[in-house]
Design goal:
Shape: globular
Number of domains: 2
Structural class: alpha/beta
Strand order of the largest sheet: 3-2-6-1-7
Strand content: 15-25%
Number of helices: 12
Radius of gyration: 22 Å
CATH architecture of the largest domain: 3-Layer(aba) Sandwich
Bound molecules: S-adenosylmethionine
Number of strands: 12
Largest sheet: 5 strands, parallel
């Protein structure tokens, strides 16, 4: 039973179609009966509005950006609300209570590739589950279509969860999706998750700050998408101003990144760690220096998804990795 007091579901705010106060625990009770939240919704939405993945969606992936305000079509009426939920990095114990409650009440869950199996197991068994997962080079739905899908699902379902790995607003395109939903007139709320850039180092015994090592930390993408509006990452500025650097999506571009950082003045002996599948049973770590890590990656055939941590905090791994958190092995 979800905690009461979550009166966050604004079904009535947009269209005055449901009672004046609807909370998640109420919807969840219905979900446990034959009806479910979708059925509540169906009482007030005509079947002609029902949409699903079976209906072909226009696929114009001309830009990397999600549906732009200009192209988003405003739905005639919007029943539900989209919750952008962060699933954390994989360990189900790191999922927030708020996120878990929403999964248990959801009518539709639209999820990414990096969401771990035990978190998918938390989803209401009656919910429609849609995988729009993206892994490098393998896009199952382009961003624009994902946004359109969310809009259409919100037209006909009360609780639509957009489930993303880590935190939706940290290199997860959550900001773009939220903007487009707002422009389309869809109610939307974010439920933060624990980002992999914090959890993976922690599970490897690497604190990002430490009074003897680092009083600043920068989170940066190692993979800038084509078509992005902002200019390239300023590695020189980052090397100058930050004592710990946490790089997301950096494995592929590691030769370029290590070169930029050494050219920017970091010593070739600066420690670097890579943590792959952090917090999951198959977590792997590689510890080296800026001058050795590329060769180590090649030798170990180390691949994405991984977080890279650069800076002297990495040297604490020797001592602290002995007391790292136990990892729940869901494979057994
Ligand atoms: C598109 S970004 C999404 C980041 C996510 N929103 C977050 O907050 O963790 C994908 C990248 O996150 C990192 N990542 C996500 N989950 C990870 C994990 N369990 N272990 C290590 N890195 C992970 C990898 O760098 C991966 O390439």
């Amino acid at each position: 039973m979800p905690p009461s007091g979550y009166s966050s579901h604004d079904l009535n705010a947009d269209n005055n179609t449901l009672r004046s106060t609807t909370d998640l625990s109420e919807l969840s009770e219905h979900s446990n009966t034959v009806t479910g939240a979708s059925q509540i919704a169906s009482h007030i939405v005509s079947s002609s509005q029902t949409s699903s993945l079976e209906s072909p969606m226009p696929s114009s992936a001309s830009s990397d950006r999600a549906v732009s305000p200009a192209t988003a079509s405003t739905p005639a009426s919007v029943l539900g609300k989209v919750y952008l939920v962060g699933s954390g990095p994989g360990d189900p114990g790191l999922m927030t209570l708020k996120g878990k409650t929403l999964l248990e009440c959801a009518d539709v869950v639209v999820y990414d590739a990096l969401v771990s199996p035990p978190i998918l197991d938390m989803i209401n068994p009656h919910a429609e589950k849609i995988n729009v997962g993206k892994r490098r080079g393998r896009h199952s739905l382009v961003q624009e279509d994902t946004t359109r899908l969310l809009i259409r699902k919100a037209q006909t379902h009360a609780i639509v969860v957009r489930l993303k790995g880590g935190d939706p607003f940290v290199f997860g395109r959550g900001g773009e999706e939220m903007e487009d939903l707002v422009v389309a007139g869809v109610s939307v709320e974010v439920i933060p998750g624990i980002t992999s850039g914090i959890a993976a180092p922690a599970y490897a015994g690497i604190p990002l700050t430490h009074r003897k090592h680092a009083s600043s930390v920068t989170f940066v993408t190692g993979h800038e998408s084509a078509g992005k509006y902002r200019p390239e990452v300023d590695w020189e500025a980052i090397a100058r101003s930050s004592e710990t650097i946490v790089v997301y999506m950096g494995v592929h571009n590691l030769p370029h990144i290590t070169e930029c950082l050494t050219q920017a003045g970091l010593a070739p002996t600066t420690p670097i760690a890579l943590v792959r599948w952090g917090t999951r049973p198959d977590q792997q770590e590689l510890i080296g220096t800026l001058e050795t890590i590329v060769q180590q990656v090649e030798n170990a055939e180390f691949s994405a998804p991984a977080i890279a941590i650069v800076g002297s905090v990495v040297s604490l791994h020797d001592t602290l990795s002995a007391c790292r958190p136990a990892i729940f092995d869901w494979r057994n």
